[in-house]
Amino acid sequence: MAQSARDGFTSTFGVLLATLGSAVGLGNIWKFPSLTGMNGGAGFLLVYLLATLLVGLPVMIVETMLGRAARANAITTFEKVAPRGQWWWKIIGWMGFLAALLIMAFYSGVAGWVYAYVIKAAMGEISTTDPKAAGAAFGALVSNPVSSLLWQWVVLGVTGSIIMLGVSRGIEAVARKLMPLLFILLLVLCVRSLTLPGAAAPGLAFLFSPDLAKITPAVVLTALGLAFFKLSIGMGTMLTYGSYFREDQNIPATTTRVMLADLSVSLLAGIAIFPAVFAFGFEPAAGPSLVFMTIPAVFTSMPGGTVFMTIFFLLTAIASVGAILSLLEVPVAILSERFGYGRKRASLYTILAIALLGVPATLSQSVMAEIKVFGMNAFDLYDFLSSNVMLPLGGILICLFVGWVYGLPQLEKQLGNDGSLPNRGLIRAVFFLVRYVTPLLIALVLLHGLKVF
Ligand code: PFF
Questions:
Q1: Domains and CATH numbers, the chain
Q2: Which of 61, 177, 285, 424 gets the highest tally of CB atoms within 10 A of its CB?
Q3: What is the pTM assigned to this prediction?
Q4: 137-179 pLDDT, tens digit each
Q5: Predicted confidence (pLDDT) at residue 12 exceeds the cutoff of 90
Q6: Using CA atoms, how far apart are residues 184 and 180, in angstroms rounded to an integer?
Q7: CA distance linking residue 394 with residue 234, whole number of Å
Q8: What is the structure's pLDDT at 17?
Q9: Do residues 184 and 268 touch, judged by C-beta distance below 8 A?
């Protein structure tokens, strides 16, 4: 990618798909169901919905806006848009750099499990509806330190090669083609799951009939962290993607569409999984293994299951690529634009750093399971620190910056595309939210969830 003329997305539709490609990923298929299961179901889902609307969407809009206004990476953007002397806003970018590495360190490990499951599905090794057998198959994969590390490195090799090709050719081309297929397959899964004997009633009640007593401060913080993680915000990913947006892109409309599509995919994953959990006697609170046990069971109970199961894991692997590319783009853009490395070298350093950081996370499912910090193994610690601490903190700072430093006139100019969009009322509402409501909400949830008060 040339340093002088920055690369960018080539069509408005491409922008939408690439942004969607970043948001939709293992977060929908793997993290959303496992967190919903572990945190009591419907109550968690309700808080997650509120967090997405009141916090996620406004942050997503203003973060993307900042990137397009500055047309730079997550650190340089704040040098460009902050008043002279206020160097500290750059911390947002550095924190994003770190968060991207931390997330990648465990996310690429989970993607490795998905890649392995493509092969296992094709070979018929996971075709079972028995919770014990399904648990044993998953356990055998993650507790093997060698194969789980190798799979993680395959993921890093594949995605590292794509990112070296550059933004428009790499990201857009991959994102454009395959998302609709995954959506259709999820719909098929939902129908099968809901029609299993004894599945629909308990499954839907678990997802949609909230028990308010289960909503504790820790649950609220987890839901907020998931909202940030899902929308790829609070750490400069949307900012970096925003920097590749076209001038005529309608940012509020694009981000709202992405948020809605992303929510639909998560809900479909939930509806595909929870009825089956009850029909087959799986444990809803199983955690990270939930999807890897339940999805094969649903496929096993339908005609042509092996083929569809293989395609499903393949599409999930591909969906994870869109998200991983956007995660890698944060450090790669920083290293290439600020340190003058070529895109290839920046990608290589990023991949190496992640491979190193990834070792403890991946081995925490086997030989390093007992090594704990704050009572968490490396996998859980990386996830907690990034999703539940760094992203919300980044979100607060981005809101405070836009609400109190950047100001309404600039925001109107950027989000209204210089007066060409009839959306002044909407911009004022976003401004009000990011100035007063959103940062306060995040701060309350963060402090309460971390037991500061
Ligand atoms: N949103 C992605 C998912 O839900 O799978 C994960 C992710 C991508 C998080 C990019 C953060 C990010 F910057």
A1: 3-449 (1.10.4160)
A2: 61
A3: 0.95
A4: 999 999 999 999 999 999 999 999 888 876 555 556 665 677 7
A5: no
A6: 6
A7: 5
A8: 81
A9: no
Given this model, what pLDDT does residue 1 score? 39
The four Cα atoms 60, 63, 69, 71 give a dihedral, to 10 degrees, of -110
Say yes or no: CB of residue 229 within 6 Å of ligand 1.
Answer: yes
Scan for tokens 């933004």, then name that residue. Answer: 167
Rounded to whole angstroms, the Cα distance separating 176 from 170 reads 10
Helix, strand, coil tally for the chain in percent (to 5): 75, 0, 20
CB distance 30 to ligand 1 below 6 Å: no
pLDDT at position 181: 83
pLDDT level of residue 321 (50, 70, 90 thresholds) = confident
Task: Rounding to the nearest 10 degrees, give the CA dihedral for residues 361, 313, 327, 183.
Answer: -140
Q: Which positions ≥6 away from 117 have C-beta within 8 Å? A: 126, 141, 292, 296, 313
Residue the block writes with tokens 């890093």: 156
Confidence (pLDDT) at 3:
39
pLDDT at 171: 55
Ligand 1 atom nearest residue 391's Cα = 11
Q: Which atom of ligand 1 is nearest to the CA of 326?
A: 10
Indicate whether residue 103 lines ligand 1 (CB < 6 A).
yes
Is there an atom of ligand 1 within 6 Å of 155 CB?
A: no
- C-alpha of residue 142 to centroid of ligand 1, in Å: 22
pLDDT at 162: 84
Distance CA 56, CA 256 (A): 10
| Ligand 1 pocket check for 97: Cβ under 6 Å | no
Residue 323 CB less than 6 A away from ligand 1: yes
CA distance 425 to 299: 47
For the Cβ of 35 lying below 6 angstroms from any atom of ligand 1, the answer is: no
pLDDT digits (tens, 9 = 90+) for 152-161: 999 999 999 8
